[in-house]
């Protein structure tokens, strides 16, 4: 995904319409403010409270749910960006909450540091990505929120609350992945690692081989994932191996990257998706062609240049986190579902993994996790497909990604997350009047 949310205008008074990247949400805020620092955020929250208005920070608009929708006061935190402090000895970097992930390689390079793991999209803000549970892949690595060692919140009463390993430490498991429900994050401290290379091996393989090897490869390889194009029997596997930054590099040529990641993955694919909306019969043969033309390359480069790919074709997404051992069987059911219903699905199904972690609302809380994500082109009606896939995921004890489409509510989450009640208690303490609430948070957390 490369776009950002449609910008809203003005710094006070009536604002334009805000839309998210996937075009699933739109809202006209009562007012937009662009605070220049933490003190300005405090003033904005206090002003909203005095007027009885809800207030929310908006990142890059890459959530498909309404988690960032701000019908009252929308806070644009772009000015709260960049490196604020560095502890080189411990590899910890404090960043403004509005820092975009794609800026991090240049910001961290002078210190010889990198993120421990990343997803394949880097347009999000650091606070938005951690607050919604953004993750990459790798059976031994947690989501982005697990890399936070500290953060600073503006709470509902306008005060600054520091949360780290020594100050308010009991709040870290809630605040690292807080859905924007506990306050406005103004800075985060990230535990980085020394910069490293990734050796990428991308291969088409029989789907059954990828399914049979998923558990073992997810545990053995540093980073393993695969994509399955519906209407084919082929998986495109991606295996990334971590290497010292001093190892030899063999990056993709600029021309080769453009051919694979721009011309084929975005340009040709965009056209095929658009054509498929009016002539669905083209989708199966195109999927078979796509799996033959892509996913067969080796290269070694700095980690961000391997993790991240350009996603220029707009889509909607649903992703569920399952107990890792359940993933192969669940995907087989999704495949059978598509065949049984006769749907024409142009987007591949993505399969990844993550380590168990202790963040209370993490989709990987307390269990080794695998992910299955389904997508539809944004001009297609996704609802029937997503609803049917969701039923399969729920049958396998799945938990939905907070930023991707689902139908679950607070009563369901109370049963799915052992520490859900503890999170609600923190919310009651920090935002008793629900200053940071919106329709989505009322759905998933209750009133």
TrEMBL record:
Residues 24-195 form the FAD-binding PCMH-type domain. It comes from the Bacteria. The keyword Metal-binding does not apply. Keywords: Oxidoreductase. Coiled coil: none annotated. This is D-arabinono-1,4-lactone oxidase. It comes from Leifsonia williamsii.
